[in-house]
Amino acid sequence: MTDLLALIKENVILGRADAKSPFPPDRKGQPGVAELVRQALDDDLGPKEILEGGLIKGMDVIGQRFKANEIYVPEVLIAARAMKAGMAIIKEPLAETGAKPVGTLIIGTVKGDLHDIGKNLVAMMMEGAGFHIIDLEIDVPADKFIGAMQKHPDAIVAMSALLTNTMVGMEANIKAFRDAGLSNPVMVGGAPVDEIYANKIKAQGYAKDAATAVEVAKQILGVN
Description:
single chain; alpha/beta
């Protein structure tokens, strides 16, 4: 059983979503994440065990390597796709167990910002760490964030911006959130954003990259 979880973890790291994955070439035709997750379920491994012992552990390694600049965006995206292939299979049985996610993350780029690569990376890494993701996509006005926050009062809100002329919307958004009586913790990030700015606008967290975002979110929630 442990060997099967190790194989799931390894294939997430390699980015092998299924047996059709073309890389690495020497593993062509061998089971990928999808086949291994199905086998694990058939062998009576619980979906929570598969998630935590295989899929999340694989994405943890990807996060560490990405943070250390040992791999880059393409490798993260490929690994995330492999992780999602496994998640799709265990989603229903996991829900039937009543297992709860680590937390909920509402994420989007601020109004006027159409750049979503960084935002998508954060969402993928967070999902890989066991968070439930509510992706509001791009160019998100304050009232759309507020609507999601009202439905999910315990969620962390993550805002990103790539441009200096759009990042100022973060401060206005946080003010709007608090004026609406919402106390959801807020994380910010993006190329022009730094910790000094995050502190200035009274954000509860700042992350310079997707791997760090997972750590910051867990710190906010007080989980390991």
